[in-house]
């Protein structure tokens, strides 16, 4: 299968492309951050007019995995116009272009579309209530994709792994701060279901192979607080866990509001794939093994200088 991956320099886009190239023909789209990748790379700005039509007609993929987004919550609050272009308008236009050409479309969304006030876990049937520019534009993107292309699949994710710059993921944040001996806040009242990006990539490819459509929650099967997540990272990497300060997200100085409960059910996904969904514990082991094997340095070797 020939797969076009947008946002190929992002944490998910890069890790997914490197994994998927072992069994598929991968073409990544990146604006200017990558060089010398082992998969085919096209330079392009997704904000250019009609770019999606040019990409699809040039690459002629069997499927598109749309990972590109303005994903920094604080940046979205400062640049709501660009956030809406990238997170809401572009996905709908790309989905429409895929529908015209009979190309399979997968859109990456987020668990942040929920406001976090529900007791228990959120299912795909629950009504989203996004908080902040990022979450609002991502929900709008979901709606635009499925309106333009009902056969598309929208996956709501929360994942962790190594990034191109070494600064983009939550565990990298903890590792970088703790390695420098700096105190770091850990939110005790924000619960989520992180999934290792390697596990996420494998699941996304299975979803494509099954030609699933509609909305699926693709997160880890275990939930924990951001504080407990940081503590687990510190212990696994033999860093000083006492530098992690337990605090409430409500007293943070973040511009974008964070939801307290982002526990998502993976029952629909597990049933569709007929297999259990991995949890955080096994993902952390794989994340640490990559560190031991020099994987973060390998990623940085693809960085445009």
Folded structure, characterized:
The protein is an alpha/beta fold. It is built from 11 helices and 13 strands. The strands form 4 sheets. Strands 3-2-1-4-5-6-11 form a 7-stranded parallel sheet, with helices on both faces. The protein has a two-stranded parallel sheet with strand order 7-10. Strands 8-13 form a two-stranded parallel sheet. β1, α1 and β2 form a beta-alpha-beta unit. The two termini are 31 Å apart. 47% of the residues are buried.
The assigned structural class equals: alpha/beta
Determine the CATH superfamily: NAD(P)-binding Rossmann-like Domain
Please tally the β strands and state the result.
13
- The CATH topology is given as Rossmann fold
Number of domains: 1
CATH class: Alpha Beta
How would you describe the shape? globular
Q: Strand order within the widest sheet? A: 3-2-1-4-5-6-11
Q: Runs with pLDDT <50, length 5+?
A: none
Keywords, separated by commas or semicolons:
7-stranded parallel beta sheet, 41% helix, single chain, 13 strands, Rossmann fold, 305 residues, alpha/beta, globular
């Amino acid at each position: 299968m020939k797969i076009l991956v947008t946002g190929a320099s992002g944490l998910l886009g890069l890790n997914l492309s490197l994994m998927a190239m072992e069994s598929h023909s991968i073409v990544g789209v990146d604006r200017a951050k990558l060089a010398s990748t082992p998969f085919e790379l096209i330079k392009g700005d997704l904000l250019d007019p009609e770019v999606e039509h040019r990409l699809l007609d040039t690459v002629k993929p069997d499927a598109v995995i749309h990972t590109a987004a303005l994903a920094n919550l604080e940046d979205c609050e400062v640049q709501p116009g660009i956030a809406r272009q990238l997170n809401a308008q572009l996905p709908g236009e790309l989905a429409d272009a895929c529908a015209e050409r009979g190309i399979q479309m997968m859109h990456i969304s987020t668990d942040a579309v929920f406001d976090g006030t529900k007791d228990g876990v959120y299912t795909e049937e629950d009504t989203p209530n996004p908080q902040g520019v990022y979450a609002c534009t991502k929900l709008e993107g979901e709606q635009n994709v499925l309106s333009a292309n009902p056969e598309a699949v929208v996956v709501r994710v929360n994942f962790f792994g190594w990034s191109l710059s070494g600064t983009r993921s939550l565990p990298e944040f903890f590792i970088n701060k703790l390695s420098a001996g700096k105190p770091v806040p850990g939110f005790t009242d924000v619960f989520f279901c992180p999934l290792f990006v390697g596990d996420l990539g494998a699941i996304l490819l299975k979803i494509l192979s099954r030609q699933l459509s509609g909305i699926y929650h693709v997160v880890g099967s275990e939930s924990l607080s951001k504080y407990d997540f940081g503590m687990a990272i510190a212990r696994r990497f033999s860093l000083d866990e006492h530098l992690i300060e337990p605090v409430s997200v409500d007293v943070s100085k973040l511009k974008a509001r964070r939801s307290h409960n982002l526990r998502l059910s993976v029952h629909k996904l597990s049933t569709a794939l007929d297999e259990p969904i991995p949890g955080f514990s096994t993902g952390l082991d794989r994340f640490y093994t990559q560190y031991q094997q020099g994987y973060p340095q390998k990623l940085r070797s693809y960085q445009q200088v």
